[in-house]
């Protein structure tokens, strides 16, 4: 089990369904833990994570909205200094609905954002977390403003050097070199820093590490991001301890295209096979 001692003052909701459980933080609207069976933690949470001083929680499933990474110039016309990955990671969300029956346990959280630099109205974003024999996370926004979204999931892995993410498109944008790349396989492996954006990936992706396998089903996405900071980058990240990079990979379900009129509706479902 992950230790929450360092986040003991964080307002959280715990979901239970049979032997499965999940923990969701109201700060960030962020799933922090998913245990499908006794003692098997699917998600990774940094032992140095904090939620004070406007810091996003490092780990679990952060919600990046309404931009991913630094804000695109269309989302930041005044060239203001804006936080990486949007504004809702450091906001307090409200619990708006809860439901429990013999098929699932579900909660709905919402956050209303005012004063985006390119949009004058207030906008509400809704997160639905459904725990059954899987963990399903839905993010939705009825407003048709320009927006990107990513579920920036951190997965707990037993052995980084034996971890594979597949299948992925061969073509990707490599954020480490800033170049567009054509790989030779449909698998991502981790032998140095990895920070890649894969466009138009499959709906089903697997993370295989030693004897564990997590199946990610995704909908409403147009990109998958795969990230591990490796040793050097980790040293510059305050809320990561030196060797923490060996314990996680991020595999993120995202909608990054701004030229779409479709309402925002993104889903990531996690199925663990341990
Ligand atoms: O999704 C990968 C990424 O955009 C990386 O470039 C890396 O910076 C990471 O997210 C973490 O960002 P954060 O703002 O949480 O430190």
From TrEMBL:
It is an enzyme of class 5 (isomerase). SUPFAM superfamilies: Galactose mutarotase-like. It catalyses: alpha-D-glucose 6-phosphate = beta-D-glucose 6-phosphate. Gene3D superfamilies: 2.70.98.10. The keyword Acetylation does not apply. Transmembrane segments: none annotated. Keywords: Isomerase. It holds the Pfam family Aldose_epim. Belongs to the glucose-6-phosphate 1-epimerase family. This is Putative glucose-6-phosphate 1-epimerase. It comes from Rheinheimera baltica.
């Amino acid at each position: 089990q992950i230790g929450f001692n360092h986040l003991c003052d964080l307002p959280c909701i715990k979901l239970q369904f049979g032997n499965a459980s999940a923990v969701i933080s109201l700060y960030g609207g962020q799933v922090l833990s998913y245990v499908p069976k006794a003692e098997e933690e699917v998600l990774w949470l940094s032992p140095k994570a904090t939620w004070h001083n406007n810091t996003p929680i490092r780990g679990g499933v952060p919600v990046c909205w309404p931009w991913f990474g630094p804000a695109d110039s269309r989302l930041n016309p005044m060239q203001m200094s804006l936080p990486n990955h949007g504004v809702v990671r450091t906001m307090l969300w409200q619990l708006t609905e809860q439901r429990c029956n013999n098929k699932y346990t579900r909660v709905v959280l919402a956050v209303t954002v005012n004063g985006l630099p390119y949009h004058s109205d207030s906008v509400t974003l809704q997160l639905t977390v459904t725990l059954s024999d899987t963990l399903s996370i839905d993010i939705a926004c009825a407003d048709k403003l320009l927006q990107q979204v990513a579920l920036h999931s951190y997965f707990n892995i037993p052995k980084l050097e034996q971890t594979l993410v597949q299948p992925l498109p061969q073509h990707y944008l490599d954020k480490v070199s800033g170049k567009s790349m054509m790989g030779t396989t449909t698998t991502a492996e981790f032998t140095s820093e990895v920070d890649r954006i894969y466009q138009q990936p499959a709906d089903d992706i697997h993370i295989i590490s030693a004897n564990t396998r997590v199946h990610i089903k995704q909908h409403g996405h147009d990109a998958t991001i795969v990230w591990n900071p490796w040793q050097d980058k980790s040293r510059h990240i305050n809320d990561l301890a030196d060797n923490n990079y060996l314990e996680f990979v991020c595999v993120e379900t995202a909608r990054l295209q701004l030229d779409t009129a479709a309402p925002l509706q993104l889903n990531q479902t996690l199925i663990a096979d341990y």
